[in-house]
Amino acid sequence: MKIPRLTTLVPVVILVLLALFPLIGIPLNWLNYLFSFFIYLALATMWNLLAGYTGLIMLCPHAFVGLAGYTMAIGTWVGVPFQAGLIAGAAVAALFALLISYPVFRMKGIYFAIGTLVLPEALKAWFSFWRPVGTAYQGGGAGYAVAGVAGFTLGDKYWLALAIAAVSIFVVHIILRARLGLGLTAIRDNENTAASSGVNIFRLKLSSFLIAAFIMGIAGAAYYIHNPRIQPTSGFNISWLLLPLMATVIGGEGIEEGPIIGAAIVTFLRFLLADYGAWSLFIQGIILVVVVVVMPQGIAGLLRQVGAYRLPLRLFKAAEAKIHKT
Amino acid sequence: MEDFLVGLAPPLIKGILLGGLYVVIALGLSLVFGVMKLINVAHGDLVILGSYFAWAVMGWLGIDPFLSLVAGVPLFFVLGFFVQKFIINRTFRISLDAALIACFGISIIVQNLCQAIWTPFNRSLLTDYRLLTFAVGPLTIQLRYLLDFIGGLAVMLAVRGFLRRTYLGRAISAASQNEPVAERMGINPNRVYSFAFAIAMACAAVAGVLQGLTFSFSPTSGSPFLIISFGVIILGGLGSMAGTFIGGMVFGLTQTLGAYFSGGSLLVQSIAPYLLVFVILSVRPQGIFGR
What is the ipTM of this complex? Predict the structure, then answer.
């Protein structure tokens, strides 16, 4: 029998352990925080794919989250079960990404950043007035409740979020080891050189944009299963941009494990500062600025620099050699 | 036809006057954008901070918001100088993206500081002249919009005079036109950045007062101003005062005329500037005057 490598075994073991958490009866509060952690992790991983590997400082995750959440919520009002709405929401987010791709990819650098920042603001304004279903008490600024999620337990939501986070990390892992990832990093490093080397810039950017929009959408919709009410000010809230941005930058932009470390820190800070209201985000903002100034590579970059991975990796290798020998 | 024109006059005038407010906000943004090619995404929040400063001083000492600028402008100037020196210059050395993210950090800090100190409720600068109107011929003009226009004109002339007449101002103009050459002429770019950011913040203090008199504000109401003033810059062009002024008017008119032709729809009024920015960017991705 072929023995699997430890580097593949360890993530699988962690995943299984995390999946067992709801069964062994850990405190509900923990499950809640882990749920948020998984959502942030999926968002941050996708933001990292765009900002860290494709060089697209994309500032509209809240457009994808809001659109997906609204699609799911409105769907439950016309009889679509939320499970289908989850996928439909992500598809709508990806469709929106496809629609805006042509104009936004014409913009470069800072123009791209601001061009994408405009979209969620416009959507927020639109959804503040739009009322497709429901009475005068729903829609518009009041938003929609997600109907029919009462039977979905916290454990189910936890597993859903865990699956989304795991898939997002796996997808980025695969992309980076495929031709697509190579092309994306080439675009990030020098767009003109990449183009002259035969990289189809538009298509590659579009693929990563669509993947990110889909997964960000599904993560956002999953959040609104857990908090079953969506308003324009929550769905299109800029915090959906700030969370993945902070997690990625604090953890380490352009490094695969960066968003994992960053999302863990952001979640932990949220837990630590839960009683301090606005001061919580204030302190997170200060941490963000300090990280950008002091260690622009983020925590994962710092860990790599000081060689913190060397010892565990060596232990891994030694253990692996031993297993293969016996 | 005559009815149509008479009906059209109030939103036209209101839009043009409101444009003055956008000019003040855009001037601050454009000074920093000119020298660093960086959009300070915290600029809208800094404007709101200016509004809160005037509001706090008014509630505390009971003095007029315009009078509070005597303290506010120097305070914001110094604050801007040090923010640039200790945060943005350092990140700018790493990359433009790092500086952009640092600006995001500042935006989070300012927004939540306002929220923590002054609660998330809507405020406005309630002076006794806030709602005054007066008649010019057949038209009524609201004083607060006129103040926006006068403020816009005054700040624009002041910045223009500064950029043309003083050494520092010429250094800033030179650095925004061609930085490598300016550096070879003995201009220290880091110093230029610091002063540009300091002046931008002083503009934000003034804009904060005008904004607070015109609209109500909450800690999160800064982002529309960021987007509109960015639109004003790309429409008006960098370094062109007249262009910025016209850009401001266009955005003011977009809002008021959009509302007028849609029968007073708030949706059109709030969404029109965003669409205008997006359309300009899609058609001319580097801005209208970009190279």
Answer: 0.89
Amino acid at B103: C
User: What would the pLDDT profile of B122-164 be if each residue is shown by its tens digit?
Assistant: 888 888 887 788 887 777 888 888 999 999 999 999 999 998 9
- Chain A interface test: which of B97, B118, B289 (most A C-beta within 10 Å): B97
B174-B180-B182-B185 Cα dihedral, nearest 10 degrees:
-170
User: Residue B133: which H helix or E strand, with range?
Assistant: strand B133-136
CA distance A269 to chain B (A): 15
Rounded-to-integer distance, Cα A171 and Cα A96, Å: 21
Q: Judge whether A268 is closer than 8 Å to chain B, CB to CB.
A: no
- Give the pair of three-digit tokens for residue B111: 């927004």
Number of domains observed in the structure of chain A:
1
At B241, the pLDDT band (50, 70, 90 cuts) reads: confident
Residues 6+ apart with CB under 8 A from B135: B141
Nearest to A88 by CA among A104, A74, A108, A99: A74
Is residue A157 in a domain?
yes
**Residue A218 resides in a domain:** yes
Q: Is A318 on the interface with B (CB under 8 A)?
A: no
Closest CA to B148 of B205, B220, B209: B209
